[in-house]
Amino acid sequence: MKKVFFKTFGCRTNQFDTQVMMSKLKDHQLTQDELDAEVVVVNSCTVTNGADSSVRNYISSIKRKNPQVRVILAGCGSHSKGESLFESKKVFGVMGHSEKEKINEILKREERFYEIGDLAHVDSTIVEEFVGKSRAFIKVQEGCDFACSYCIIPAVRGGARSHREETVLEQIRKLAANGFGEFILTGTNVGSYGKDHNTSMAELLKKISMIRGVRRIRIGSLEPIQIDDAFMELLDEPWMAKHLHIALQHTSDKMLERMNRRNRFESDLALFEKIASHGYALGTDFIVGHPGEDEAAWQEAIERVRMLPLTHVHAFSYSKRDNTASAQMKEIVRGDIAKVRHRELTTLVKAKNYAFRRSHNSNLEVLLENGKDGVFYGFDQYFNRVEVTSSEELSSNWVLLNDVEVKEDGNYATL
Ligand code: SF4
């Protein structure tokens, strides 16, 4: 039995993919020690040039420390850098996304191999990831049909494909029967779920909500244009988490156009206001410093962020990715300027979040994840973190909080 170590780079999707591979290893032994491993599977990320170099550096360092090791490249990087790493003999083998479930056989090969497969495959293994004993992430789809100009994902993960509805529901049924109450639906472009199977996110949500034991459903991320009337009709359902993450990426139309995004600010604002009027907290992704973001575009953007009922932000500083349209663009924004804009944005949204929490400090339904020395953590329905002090063991319990102390750095309660 060969000893195999997995090294995972990148996003949650890659972490799920590592789980899929691990679950298929029948004739090999998993090890947690990379120096003891005979095979290292590098589940790589290629989202930026920086991500590529981290993977390359890791491969060199592991071969230096463990010269006998066989390095197998998997993940997104196998589709962008696999060929060159294979040809230059930096790796023993390359396996593309569609080959993951065959890993047990692939690792038995004694000859070097390049198995890139295709980008249309959908795994039949649905991986759940558990947080404590009551929250589970469920991957419902793969890939993306959008073509944002800064993003390499469609080229390395393929177009949007959904998992079969019955497989998703079956998985949730099993987990709910085992005490899981909160489900978080994830994927590369979650909101595109169902298009290829003649169904929709709204339909899936309704079916999940009918499963006994399901108490709260969160959706990893949605694109504004994916929110249709059928989805809006579900906003007041008690099982919907009262927080949505809607990826805008920018609020200047000039920048949205450059980024080849499908959303525009006027309709984004109307959408956010409508959803917020149903009592929702709203988060977004935002890229600062994309080429072309001059001072005027930034001033317009930050003014518009002020107008949005926003409570959470994932702010990213633009990072170049070769072979994307953005990488060819001129008018580069200096790193120090991007850094200042990043700070301005996060400070603004932090203040908005604080104001939101002060006006939403009762009736908080919190699923406590784990705790230590009488201090427990969890998220309320608005996706705000709450710290609860109690002499009782409350891990994996739902609690209803009406008396919460709202501080700038978070919410606190004693039970
Ligand atoms: S929606 Fe845009 S940013 Fe997101 S994965 Fe698709 S192409 Fe990339």
Lay out the secondary structure.
Layout: E1 2-8, H1 12-24, E2 28-30, E3 39-44, H2 49-65, E4 70-75, H3 76-80, H4 82-87, E5 93-95, H5 103-106, E6 113-115, E7 128-131, E8 135-139, E9 141-142, H6 153-157, E10 161-162, H7 165-177, E11 182-186, H8 201-209, E12 216-219, H9 229-232, E13 243-245, H10 253-258, H11 265-276, E14 281-288, H12 295-307, E15 312-317, H13 335-359, E16 364-372, E17 375-379, E18 385-389, E19 398-401, E20 405-407, E21 410-414
Parallel strand pairs: 1-2, 1-3, 3-4, 4-5, 5-6, 8-11, 11-12, 13-14, 14-15, 18-21
Antiparallel strand pairs: 7-8, 9-10, 16-17, 16-19, 17-18, 20-21
Helix pairs in contact: 12-13
Key features of this structure:
6-stranded mixed β-sheet; pyruvate-formate lyase- activating enzyme; 32% helix; 13 helices; binds iron/sulfur cluster; globular; Rossmann fold; alpha/beta; 3 domains; 415 residues
